[in-house]
Amino acid sequence: MQIIAASPSDIEPAVSCLATAFAADPITGFLLQTGPHYRQRLTQFFSLLIGARLALGMPVLVARDANGIRGGAMGYTTARPEWPKRFMDDWARFEHAVPGLAERMAVYDEIAEKGKPAQPHYYLGVLGLDPALQGRGLGMQLLKSFCERSAADPLSAGVYLETASPSNVRFYERAGFEVSGQGSLGEATLWCLFLRQGTAAA
Fold first, then answer.
1. Which candidate, 149, 147, 150, 143, places its Cα nearest to that of 128?
2. Taking Cα atoms as reference points, which of 102, 15, 97 lies closest to residue 62?
């Protein structure tokens, strides 16, 4: 399995992989609302995220084997640049097309804002993999590859992320992350976690 930086040609297969990986995720379920056309909304959501982050030169990693892309991870460096206008416009249209999305994003952002560290840090916004490969260490490989980029950046104090899955909390804690905050996200709990530079599990 290769873990490499994504290219524009990887967007479509990576989006398909992530849409499958997040089919039952509590965060995307809350934000995008499960039900009819949920898969379509997931696909649009991840297409916007990957496209914007590639355009900005932010970290977008994919795990690839002979069968194609099997997982991905993406986020931000210590920089938080605004999205290019075309992605901002596409996001505005997407937000308008999903009733209540802006309000639910505000709930999410309020919890995340309280849990994130004050120091400059990397943000891991998405980590997902083909469900058929869960339990084989691929998720940890993707996580370590992302965290290594933060560790190599002298401006970064560590890596911050959120999850609403209890099993994911245990996964990240095994990697050295600590819970830095939490709050209610609909019927789920959103946990904020931070890996302080130099504390990653071996």
1. 143
2. 15
Distance CA 184, CA 147 (A): 27
- DSSP letters spanning 45-111: HHHHHHHHHHHHT--EEEEEETTEEEEEEEEE-S--PPPPHHHHHHHHHHHHHSTTHHHHHHHHHHH
Give the span between the Cα atoms of 79 and 75, in whole angstroms.
10
- For 45-81, how does the pLDDT look when each residue is reduced to its tens digit (9 = 90+)? 999 999 999 999 999 999 999 889 999 999 999 999 9
Task: Name the residue with tokens 């104090």.
Answer: 157
Secondary structure (3-state) at 134: coil
Token couple for 106: 């505000």
- Kindly give, in sequence order, each residue whose CB lies less than 8 Å from that of residue 133, ignoring residues fewer than 6 positions away: 70, 71
Give per-residue pLDDT as tens, 92-102: 999 999 999 99
Distance of alpha carbon 84 from alpha carbon 91, whole angstroms: 11
170: three-class secondary structure by DSSP: helix
Q: Which domains does the chain have, with CATH numbers?
A: 2-196 (3.40.630.30)
